[in-house]
Amino acid sequence: MTTHRSPIWRGMSAVVGKELADHLLSARMRVLEGLIVLTTIATLYGALQHIRATTAEDPFIFLRLFTLSNGPMPSFTVLLSFLIPLVAVGLGFDAVNGEHNRRTLSRLLSQPIYRDALLLGKFLAGLLALTIGLVSLWLLLMGAGLLVLGVPPSGEEVARALLFLLAAIAYGGVWLAVAMLCSVIFRSPATAALVALGLWLFMTILWPMLTPVLVQGLLGSGVNLAPDQLAQQYNDWAGNLALLSPTQLFSDAGISLLSPSTRSLGAVFVSQLQGALLGAPLPLSESMALSWPQFSGLIAAVIVLFTLAYISFQRQEIRA
């Protein structure tokens, strides 16, 4: 009995291969990769200088390469939270409207390649290109740390760094889906890029500023609540609203995975610290449980945003 592949996904592998080759060989991708590598080398140099200055025994010294900052240079995790959206938007802002402007979209869909396969193929190609860049950067960081520090990382350090890499890929998938949604909605690539970058700036910079104002407006004066209850509700609301930002989700996931001593994300009351061994590192399983909501949030955001792009693309009229 022979099985046939569903015609809906016919041609998707060809779309993925063609788009991936275009991404990897484009001048745009090379400029973005060069920018990331140069800034990463500067960040790594600052972290290594800081590690050399502190000679105390540290069982997770390799993880400090991801989290330490020196002077004006941010840490590697903070740097990625800014650079990954730029690369993702650069890969996806003209994925669909570029075909419209070149008048090649109707030719692609007459191969026959279904809209489902075309849109998913373009998204997977962009995500693969982003994954290749992030994996290369991760290997560069680990290799440089191994050469300079002269100490091999432990198995738990490698596992935590790999989980952080997965979180970075999911974070990039969110902004790639945002860029593709803008590419479907707006016919002008410049408009799509500006809207996608504007959403990134809003969620990264403005949203943390607006969150306290929104929480105060939602809670009101709180005259009927005790001070402890009011503070607890304020922190709960502020934490939940902050998690609407993909940058906050990625930052929390990085903190819980790369800082084993992190026991809680957000504000912690003194009563919650009773019986806790402060400073003792958490096992990998507990750090994974702590970061799982952030992983789930990033994956859910990718699914929702891609679904919106899919619905918008299906409803568009395409003419030759």
What oligomeric state do the depicted chains represent? single chain
Shape: globular
Determine the strand fraction and express it as a percent band: under 5%
What is the CA–CA distance across the termini?
40 Å
SSE order, one letter for each helix or strand: HHHHHHHHHHHH
Q: Residue-averaged pLDDT, rounded?
A: 81
Beta strand count: 0
Q: Residue ranges: pLDDT <50 for 5 or more in a row? A: 268-277
Q: Residue share in helices?
A: over 70%
Instruction: Supply Rg.
Output: 22 Å
The number of domains is: 1
Main beta sheet: strand number and arrangement?
none
Count the DSSP helices: 12
Find the structural class using helix and strand composition.
mainly alpha
Task: Write a structural description.
Helix content is 72%, strand content 0%. It is an all-alpha fold and 320 residues long. The protein has one domain (7-315). Helix 8 (155-185) packs across helix 9 and helix 8 packs parallel to helix 12. The protein is globular and about 65 Å long.
Task: Set down the secondary structure blueprint.
Blueprint (H helix, E strand, L loop, with lengths): L11 H14 L1 H27 L10 H4 L8 H17 L4 H6 L2 H5 L5 H35 L5 H31 L3 H31 L7 H16 L3 H13 L25 H32 L5
Helix pairs in contact: 1-7, 2-4, 2-7, 4-7, 4-8, 4-9, 7-8, 8-9, 8-11, 8-12, 9-10, 11-12
Question: Which key phrases capture this entry?
Answer:
globular; 12 helices; mainly alpha; 320 residues
